[in-house]
Specification:
four-stranded parallel beta sheet, eleven-stranded mixed beta sheet, 565 residues, Protein-Tyrosine Phosphatase, Chain A, alpha/beta
Length: 565
């Protein structure tokens, strides 16, 4: 139990003293807290576009000094003691005016969500020594969580740089498949009371095959694309296979596969060849992120271009993702109303120094490279050596297992998610990394008392298909026609050698083209945010990019309209 006393310093400014366990700790100088703060901040360095995280509030004198030293930097404060926050607001509000204060780990993500990543250049941390010393673990935990979240945001930004244009292209090309597909949202809330199984392609998957066969009629089995052919080779038809990958090589996970009753859930950005060539029923989804903004309102961040598309067709069905198809399946099972989630083949580790299960496309490709000088083990080992590896706890007690930093990020995602949701998450992977927050079990143990609870997920899916309509695309065709006309007008504007880029951008916004162009211009717009150019050079760069994108997008819209007709 602690309390805080506000007392006057020798300089006349107030200071604070915290009384804890019979001891008095002064949070600021008893002589001159302002001068003390500026002296402490004088050795602290940051730079433009860096986020400054301040561990410890006190009465905010150090915060005011940092604001004066770095007026253009975003600042976040971490403070555990609500009484301290109230006293600071009461007595020294100007020191912390308009600055977000984080009081628990759950606040970190929402506080960072609005950060402009295009111009973000890292973080600097200032420790208010007296406050930090009161509970180092609290501050270190939140700083670590924030660092992990920012790493994820940066990774997301880099992914968008690399793939956003590809996503937009695929979305346009995949519109031709909508008339033959269902919205994934039709599957939501239809599997209540049924356990959901995520089947991933970790090295241990092959050890779970016999158990998966036994529980087919007692669960909803959803395979990630890489695990799909492994299951088919062992006469297991998962109820659903999910694909997220925009790249052409994702076709290789489906080549030669006869889906039988398995249906496909494909993200709208997925490789068009996968959706086009799948021979059974298809459901189309989209990746979207939901978060609370600084006002506490729920915000939706959709894949670029999807907002435009959904003006003219039914909502696709939002599935949140942690960056891998397995994390998307996890959210799908939540949306589906499943009573629990079981992870199978989710090794998140190089079990047996392998990368994927036997039977995956990756494994087949590497087998073809085997010769008398290089076996499969050597091929796996050569790939592992190129990665930044680490050792983590295995699901087998008191053992460690080898993983890498990317797989460990996914392990953290599953761990955090398992702790936050209301249904239990079981790690039924045969061998792999331990995932805190999940319950370690086996499929046989989990279903031993549930064999009488038959739940035919195939019948549920078939009923949904019988009773539902596929996408209606007439309004979309009309939108494509009007968009092509607006693109032609833009091309005509750009042919005027004296046109200013701002005039073109204003015209695009008027014609609802800004959202169409944005994925194709992200790199250029980000470059302009991060670099200072003359107005003339910036104008020319924008005009050149607008001309290039206009030609490209016009061709894509015309091709897509031809396929729709």
């Amino acid at each position: 139990m602690s309390c805080i006393k506000i007392i006057a310093s020798k300089s006349g400014d107030i200071t604070a003293e915290i009384i804890s366990n019979g001891k008095n700790l002064r949070l600021h100088s008893a002589f001159d807290p302002v001068k003390e703060a500026f002296r402490a901040v004088s050795s602290f360095t940051s730079s433009k576009n860096r986020l400054i995280i301040i561990a410890g509030l006190g009465l905010g004198y150090h915060i005011k000094a940092i604001k004066e030293k770095y007026p253009d930097n975003a600042i976040l404060i971490i403070e555990k003691n609500q009484e301290m926050i109230d006293l600071c607001h009461k007595h020294c509000y100007d020191n912390v005016k308009n600055i977000r204060i984080i009081t628990n780990p759950d606040d970190a993500a929402s506080a960072l969500e609005k950060l402009e990543m295009a111009s973000f250049k890292g973080t600097s941390v200032f420790f208010h020594r007296q406050s930090y010393g009161l509970d180092k673990d609290f501050y270190d935990t939140i700083i670590t969580d924030m660092s992990r979240y920012l790493t994820s945001k940066i990774s997301d930004l880099l992914t968008r740089f690399e793939f956003e244009q590809k996503w937009a292209e695929n979305i346009l090309l995949n519109t031709s498949q909508l008339a033959d597909s269902f919205p994934a949202s039709l599957l939501f809330d239809r599997f209540k009371g049924i356990p959901g199984i995520i089947v991933s392609a970790g090295p241990s998957l092959i050890m779970s095959i016999d158990s998966l066969k036994k529980c087919k009629n007692h669960a909803l089995i959803v395979a990630v694309d890489t695990a799909y052919k492994v299951l088919l080779k062992h006469d297991i038809e998962p109820h659903i296979v999910m694909v997220l990958d925009a790249q052409k090589q994702s076709q290789l996970h489906f080549f030669g596969a006869n889906p039988g009753k398995t249906v496909l859930i494909a993200d709208i950005v997925s490789s068009p060849a996968v959706i086009r060539n799948f021979k059974n029923h298809k459901f189309i989804s989209t990746t979207a992120k939901y978060y609370d903004d600084s006002d506490g309102k729920l915000k939706r961040e959709a894949t670029p271009f999807v907002d435009w598309l959904e003006k003219y067709i039914e909502p696709l069905g939002d599935i949140q993702s942690g960056g891998s198809v397995a994390t998307s399946v996890f959210d799908f099972l939540l949306n589906s109303g499943c009573s629990s989630i079981l992870l199978v083949g989710q090794d998140l580790a190089y079990t047996g120094r392998k990368i994927h299960s036997n039977g995956t496309h990756h494994n087949e490709k590497w087998i073809s490279l085997i010769n008398r000088f290089s076996g499969l083990e050597n091929i796996n080992q050569a790939i592992i050596r190129k990665r930044k590896i680490k050792y983590v706890d295995s699901i087998i007690k008191e053992e460690k297992i080898i993983t890498d930093f990317v797989l460990d990020l996914y392990r953290s995602w599953f761990s955090d998610s398992a702790k936050k949701i209301k249904i239990p998450v079981y790690n039924a992977t045969a061998i792999g990394a331990n995932i805190p927050g999940t319950i370690i079990t086996t499929l046989d143990e989990f279903f031993i008392d549930k064999k009488s609870n038959k739940s035919d997920s195939s019948e549920i899916i078939e009923a949904i298909i019988r009773q539902s309509q596929k996408f209606k695309i007439q309004k979309l065709k009309e939108a494509f026609c009007s968009t092509i006309k607006a693109l032609e007008e833009t091309a005509e504007l750009l042919s005027n050698k004296s046109i200013n880029a701002d005039a073109v951008l204003d015209n695009m916004e008027k014609n609802d083209l800004d959202v169409v162009y944005r994925p194709f211009m992200k790199k250029t717009l980000t470059y302009l945010k991060r670099n200072t150019l003359t107005d003339l050079k910036q104008n020319q760069m924008l005009l050149d990019e607008l001309s290039h994108v206009t030609k490209k997008v016009t061709v894509l819209f015309r091709q897509s309209l031809d396929r729709l007709n």
